[in-house]
Amino acid sequence: MKLMQSILLILASISFSSVSAQSQDAGILTDVEGYLNFELGRTPEIRKQRTIQVDETVCMEFGRGGVCSVGTIQSIMPASDALPMCAGNERCVTVKVDRVDIYTAPPSVANWQVIEISELILDEERMVRLPDNLYVKTVKGKNCSTVSDLPIGQTLKFSSTERVSHSVSRGVTSSATITARLTFKSPEGFGGSLGGSFTRGISLTNTEAHTTGRTISQSFDFRVRVAPRKLLTARAIVAETSLVIPFSGTILVDGNVDANLDGVGKISELLSPSARTLAVEGELSVTASTDVNTEQNDRDLTDRECANGDVDSSVVFEDFVLEDSENSILLSGLRQQGAAEVLAAERRNMRSATDLMHILGASGGLCYIGACNRPLDGYREYCYFDDDGFCTDCGEEPDIQCEPIE
Fold first, then answer.
1. Does residue 86 have a pLDDT over 90?
2. Sheet containing 391-398: order of strands
3. Helix and strand tally (H, E) in the chain?
């Protein structure tokens, strides 16, 4: 009997270990039935009943009257002179016989169901904010007039992305879909296109990534007047802000055990709630776009910049995309290189080479946006081309995207 118990425990352990490793993509799906059988294998054995077939040998002896005995049944056939009564002439055969067997073994799962699903909780302490994608439009107005303002009017249009994606790294197998609810609340400084919060249903039986998204279109009417002998630089920025946040939760299961003679019906009669609770985990990725943010500054023009008077007045519109603000549009190590080298090295970060050509080599043009200071303090580094076309005029400037996350 002990040998049977050991074999059943080993089989339950092997079954649980093998099925728990089922996976899709990088996620793992736990076989609930295998897990419960493994846990039930640790509980006391229960009495069970089964019908088994056993081999039995039936022997017959032949005497003077024919069959003398079958097993212990005496023959009633008359004797004859040819054979003595029960002369020992025996014949035996093996036959299958059904018998009821009562034995003890660990209980096993007959069926199971989910009785409680916790709400998924986001682990904000492990939240990671990814580098922003910045869509930058700059307007530079140079007014060399000494008497009149220079009017500038332009509608700036932006196209950015909103996206929500989740994946389950540890889930469960089930013939029916098991869905848990997850609620996300936007932290301070995060893109507002998603609204303040949203709730998302997440299937715990599928580890494939699920993504939804849309394009966000925004416009901003830029209207300003540049004072005489002033250089005005104004920026309008839309940021795609992205977060990756782990989440976790639990499911509580119960069900019936197989038929037995001890009157045990429910799995919960043998296993505690903690033993019937399975953990689920995953990751939520969120990208949201901010509203259009603007900032501007001006400075006095030098006589050299307005050597030709009003002829030198101009309005320049610069338009580019910074796909990864941590790497920046122009890397720090390239600031001392000429415009051609910078263009060749950073072309992959631009929407097009033409966009960058509008700003390279122009004195006062924006050439570098650094990553937000760490820890976040509301500032990041901005650099502008100097009079010789090098990206050396740098300093920290306030940026709403770099405000601390609360």
1. no
2. 366-372, 379-385, 391-398
3. 4, 20
Token pair of 115, please? 């009785």
Percent of the chain with pLDDT over 90: 37
Final residue before a domain boundary, out of 73, 105, 137: 105
Tokens standing for 12?
């339950």
Q: Same domain for 289 and 397?
A: yes
Q: Count structural domains, the chain.
A: 2
Please state which of the ranges 93-97, 144-148, 281-285 shows the lowest mean pLDDT.
93-97
246, with CB counted inside 10 A (0-12, 13-18, 19+), is middle
Region 355-374: mean pLDDT is 58
Can you give the pLDDT at residue 203? 93
**Residues 283 and 350 grouped into a single domain:** yes
Q: Are residues 101 and 121 in the same domain?
A: no
pLDDT tens string 317-328: 888 777 655 443
Give the residue from 59, 82, 105 where a domain finishes: 105
Please tell me the predicted confidence (pLDDT) of residue 78: 44
Neighbours of 324 (CB within 10 A): 14
Q: How far is Cα 376 from Cα 2, in angstroms, rounded to an integer?
A: 65
For residue 96, how many other CB atoms are within 10 A of its CB?
Answer: 8
Is residue 314 within 8 A of residue 245, CB to CB? The reply is no
The answer to whether 276 and 172 are in contact (CB under 8 A) is no
Three-class secondary structure of residue 361 per DSSP = coil
How many CA atoms lie within 13 Å of 387's alpha carbon, on the beta-carbon side?
4
Query: Distance between alpha carbon 290 and the CA centroid of its chain, in Å?
Result: 23
Report the pLDDT value the prediction gives residue 365, as an integer from 0 to 100.
65
Residue 190's domain comprises 115-251+278-402
Spatial separation of the C-alpha atoms in residues 404 and 396, rounded to whole Å: 16
**Sign of the C-alpha dihedral, residues 345, 395, 320, 288?**
positive
Six-digit token string for 31: 């076989």
Using DSSP's 3-state secondary structure scheme, residue 379 falls into strand
- pTM of the full predicted structure? 0.62
Q: 208 by DSSP, 3-state: which?
A: coil
Beta carbons of 362 and 316 less than 8 angstroms apart: yes
Amino acid at 387: D
Rounded Cα distance between 94 and 223, Å, is 106
**Structure confidence at residue 354 (pLDDT):** 31
